[in-house]
Amino acid sequence: MDRINVPPAGPTDLPLALLEMGCSGRFELITHPSPDQPLPPQSTLPHGLPPTSLSLEREVEKQFLRDAAWLPIHDTDFAFQKFLKVTQREVNVDSLINCTPSALHSGISVVRDPTTGMLLDFTEVLLENTGLSAKNSLSLQRQPGPPSESLRGSNTNYPFRPGGMEELTLDQIKKRSDLEEDIDFENDLLRVPPGLKAGMDFTDKDAKIAKAEVNLMSLLSSLDDITDLQPVAEEKEEGKDNEDAPKLPRTNSLEDLGVKDVVSSSTPSERGKDEKPKPKENPEENKKWAVPVNINSPCDDFYKRIPNPAFKWPFELDVFQKQAVLRLEARESVFVAAHTSAGKTVVAEYAIALSQKHMTRTIYTSPIKALSNQKFRDFKTTFGDVGLLTGDVQLSPESSCLIMTTEILRSMLYNGSEVIRDLEWVIFDEVHYINDAERGVVWEEVLIMLPDHVSIILLSATVPNAVEFSEWIGRIKKKHIYVISTMKRPVPLEHYLYTGNSTKTQKEMFLLLDPTGNFLTKGYYAAVDAKKERTSKHAQSFGAKSTSHNTTASQDRSVWLTLLHFLSQRQQTPVVAFTFSRTRCDDNARSLDSMDMTTSIEKAEIHSFFQKSLSRLRGGDRQLPQILVMRDLLKRGIAVHHSGILPILKEVIEMLFSRGLVKVLFATETFAMGVNMPARTVVFDSIRKHDGTGFRNLLPGEYIQMAGRAGRRGLDATGTVIILCKAGVHEMADLHVMMLGKPTTLQSQFRLTYTMILNLLRVEALRVTDMMRRSFSENHRDTQAQEKRIRQLKQMVSSLPALDTEGQLSDMLPYYHTVTELRTTTEALQRAILESVNGLKALSVGRVVLVNNKQHLNALGVILQVSSAAVNRTFTALVICEKGNEEEEGNANNNNAFPHLYNTALFIPEGPCSHTVQKLTLQDVSAITVKTLKVIPDRIIDNYSKRQQPRFRLDPPGQAISTATQELLRLAEANPSGMATLDPVNDLQLKSVGVVEDSMRVRVLQGSLREFNCIHSPTFAEQFARVEERMKVQEELDRLLFQVSDQSLSLLPEYHQRIKVLQSLQYVDSGGAVQLKGRVACQISCHELLLTELLFENVLSPLAPEESAALLSCLVFTQKTQVEPHITSTLQEGINRVLSVAKRIGELQRECGIPQTAEEFVGQFKFGLTEVVYCWARGMPFAEIAQLTDVQEGTVVRCIQRLDEVLKEVRQAARIVGDSVLGSKMEKASLAIRRDIVFTASLYTH
């Protein structure tokens, strides 16, 4: 290649030169003060710069005419074969072996004079971490991937290391190297490499085994006692550790590795904290991660502490907002819990402004797409540099603030997106959505997967357990979370009951809950009376109390007309009427045909806005029935908002509502969930809703969320909430719970999904069990405290004296285990007896029982009193004892050996018989005998307690006591070897399986106890005490070790079941490595198993693009429909194949132990929209499609939009498998459905 000649520098050229540094492609710019100095050489390389531009002709000639390597060998065309002979093709096998060059391990850097900046010299700099890439490392030091993958990442990338998941500690590495030393290079070699079916055979078949040569290792091991060799061995260990050192990038020197007891800590500063002298409890161990912030203390020095804030508002901030801003300035994470419209957005805005100031990025996630679109519009007007990422839209993704749904953030984290590097804040809006059964798990996954450098802002409605939730996040992320929660409403609410239904009664509105939160029963009874007056005399006389919940349409209409009349007179509009059924919304709006609530100026404004917004639609789509109906309603100031409304119409309605042009909006609950559109009045059509399983009253959290839409900040002094009493007044208790009950606590909805398992399995360093252990559902585990206790217990075990298990005492441990089992079984039996009616009858006054406790051994007693406590019932009893053993502290040295378990001989006093009156617990009563005595309890107790006073200490016992004592003594002497006791099964008639088994087991155990030898040993008691002490510590240790281990995770069994499913479908191999099918499933976000199986079984290949789109609609459509679709035979065949695949997967899951039945699994897929989608993909206009089904237009649109996302995923998956035909087919299908009204861009994003 020729070198290009550059003309010499002329007088007009700037004296600049480029100097190329080494081979890594870096350049330095060199400036020269005067033009007469010659330019220095242009490279530090010996041969100068490589040529910069190539002659194309030569390249073509060289590649295609001189070198025939590009020609295929296997073409059978005759002329082609002839051509091959002409061009002498040299076979070059080495060209097939391709090895990427290893990364350069050094670069060249310039040494400059610090004052003048002149070049002095070049030095070579060693580069660290050059081999790291997105495919092999979790580190942020790795090289960025290709720009095309920078936004969404790629499913072969590793994620970045999640914050709070530590790298390997020293101890773990040491453990590994200890294991490594035990390899026996003759016997223990593995034969089959992981992933292969066959392997090596190391057995020496023909050669006779020669006499073993001197084995150096064995010599060394026999010479262990020679001291000179010790250092060598140590050095060897250090060397091993050093080989493992790359896993621990923080220690760069051998000294660190040698230190055995370094407290492994995640940051050097923590290490410093740990090494403080520890006179008292180590503060590091039991610190709290969640820090509640007191929002009552005013923030006076706010402007002093933040002299030039990143963002200024036109209004003065509330205290809670100031506290949050201060925390953000300190780069801390916060959890803000406040009512709707209290101004949580301020916190988000400040974070975005901060990140723009710091030139980092912020991600704002919301649970609902509509909310994302609105926030995009709001933030775009405020900040300008804002992007939006939802399933189907991608606007300016390079912006510093990105708004997206949580699912997209999750896939970005799993796929190692480059955006995460620059991320400073992630804002989670509406965090109480984590309670959503379907999608709650996504929030937890994202929180667990976020790297360490990202701070977290959580915004939520008021929740009772904000601190507990924040404590969990703080613990898994190892950072403090500041909890700021305020119960204050900027606009207080008044809650009314409304009973009016005609012009005469239109003023019947009764205040039930005033702004200060007092529940007024007076108002409730007034409403009941008002309602009563109107029920017919007939109903009153017959006492028909139970009014039905349902009312007829005409009754509804009169109530609404009356109410709206009343409200518009009192200037209480705009009104949001929450109705928990879509058809009810539509009917109510339609029934108000006589109502007109707008002025002519407003009508004109509504008309022009409506026309302008719909101008983007095609002509036919503008005439859709739903649009025409809504246009007429809107002109009169009435509108409807629910999931069945077309998305573009919903946006028009929201915008008109926020301008105050919609006076009455009939909406379902979703309107309150995200859309921030306050009104003056909120009306509840009913307080019962259907939640998918049945009807129930609204929960306090739902009620507060919806009622909170009343009252516009800065416009209304109070907000009005009205509950309609159409059929009858609701129960007072229900209303009270709903208005003043605690909102729903945040609860974990964490569950295992196949996508999650596969995404974590493909990265070696992340384990699914780590994810489960960090989930909110395992929040009760306090591992730090438990591990500290484990260390203490281990020390205790090692410091206990050794057990003497020689000779007679050899069966001491089995004896201990038998006794323990006997004790627990007996206690279980006793509990069963006490909980049964017959048992309590037997344990009544006068019953003779056998007493065993620290003081008594097999002593007889008689019950005098039974306490009435239900839980820990006690029995006052008179028990016979030796003289001098009346006090409770009697000889308690022998208490641990449980002699009564094998010795049934009754206690008979050696000297004169004395007695004591004691309270016995259930544990003290070891048996209930068949005998009862006639006693006079009151007298015995009075006499005994009188004789406890010092003055009467020496009086003789009263008559009642003496008689009872003599009777007990007589019984004991009559049956010295034990008395007949009541058998729980035969006598007390307890026939439950547990009791029968226990009583049989007790008999067996009691029999086996007599056969032990250790009980005859003279030192038995003291040895037994030792065994017991040691075993107690050991048992607690075992229990804690179990709790800390993965075995105690509640989801572990399900994890094993799911892995079994994945293995039998060959998504992972037996070693847990993700296979091709697993790779494909990682791409797919919903129903990943079914879709992957369909791909691999080629179910989609015989279908046309529009048919495959129609078939896949079963994955996104979830409603029931009454209309049977008419479809082509190929489609019907496809449906049958989908169902059979689904059935197979369902049955496999069932076999592997997952509780879902195959029918339930298959039932998820609904084919009601196949015909609709098929026709739409073939180009039928929307108006005709709407006629084909009873599903509402909005739902159809949403399904087709979600279907487009599925088609994209299938296209990606087909690319991975290498099925380009399917990929292009999916692209065609996607293009066919992306048209007209279904894919009109949102009004918010333009």
Automatic annotation (TrEMBL):
PROSITE patterns listed in its UniProt record: HELICASE_ATP_BIND_1, HELICASE_CTER
Domain Helicase ATP-binding, chain residue ranges per copy: 325-481
Name the record gives this protein: Helicase SKI2W
Gene Ontology cellular-component annotations: Ski complex
Native source species: Zoarces viviparus
GO biological process, one term: nuclear-transcribed mRNA catabolic process, 3'-5' exonucleolytic nonsense-mediated decay
Domain Helicase C-terminal per the UniProt entry, residue ranges: 596-761
Reaction catalyzed: ATP + H2O = ADP + phosphate + H(+)
SUPFAM superfamilies for this protein: P-loop containing nucleoside triphosphate hydrolases (SSF52540)
Disordered: annotated segments: 137-165, 233-291
Keywords: ATP-binding, Cytoplasm, Helicase, Hydrolase, Nucleotide-binding, RNA-binding
